[in-house]
Amino acid sequence: MQYLYVFVGGALGALLRFVFSQLNHGQGFPIGTFIANLAGAFFMGLVSVLVIQTFKSNPLLKKGITTGFLGALTTFSTFQFELVKMFEHQQYILLFVYAISSYILGLAVCYIGSKAGGALSHE
Predict the structure, then answer these.
(1) Where along the chain is Na(+) bound (predicted)?
(2) Tens digits of per-residue pLDDT, 87-120?
(3) This prediction's pTM
(4) Is 71 annotated as a binding-site member?
(5) Pick from 85, 86, 73, 92: which is nearest to 35 by CA?
(6) SS3 of 122, please?
(7) For residues 69 and 63, what is the distance between their CA atoms, to the nearest angstrom?
(8) For residue 60, how far is the Cα from the chain centroid?
């Protein structure tokens, strides 16, 4: 049964990821990947804390949301590929801004999400 939850969550995450990818154009800042990864980081923090506190009786839901939906939504491999392409096109400033902002903001929004999840689970 866990496979069904992961499958459905993954399908929905992949569809949303595709929608975000439509925002990427040319060799500029890959805003679609950036948004998908930051949204995924925030919701991973939020959902992980909420699921631990709220859905202890339904671990399949956690698998469907985290492994399925968020796993398909976020894309570390595309992020790395975009950095390589920026390097190959000698877009060093863009590469640096994209890499640093993705890492730092990703950590920040994941932290904020986990704190929000903790606050919501105590209400």
Answers:
(1) 71, 74
(2) 999 999 999 999 999 999 999 999 999 999 888 8
(3) 0.87
(4) yes
(5) 73
(6) coil
(7) 9
(8) 20
Is 10 part of any known ligand binding site?
no
**CA-CA distances (angstroms) from residue 121 to 42, 44, 55, 116, 117?**
16, 15, 10, 9, 6
CA distance 70 to 61: 12
Q: Report d(CA 17, CA 35) in Å as an integer.
A: 9
Q: How many whole angstroms separate alpha carbon 27 and alpha carbon 114?
A: 33
Among candidates 27, 106, 114, 28, which has minimal Cα distance to 74?
106
Phi, psi of 25 (to 5 degrees): -135, 130
The token pair that represents 108 in the structure block: 């920040």
| Alpha-carbon span 78 to 93, nearest angstrom | 19
CA distance 6 to 60: 8
CB distance 61 to 8 below 8 Å? no
The whole-angstrom separation of Cα 82 and Cα 24 is: 11
Q: What count of other Cβ atoms lies within 10 Å of the Cβ of residue 87?
A: 12
Return the number of other C-beta atoms located less than 10 Å from residue 46's C-beta: 22
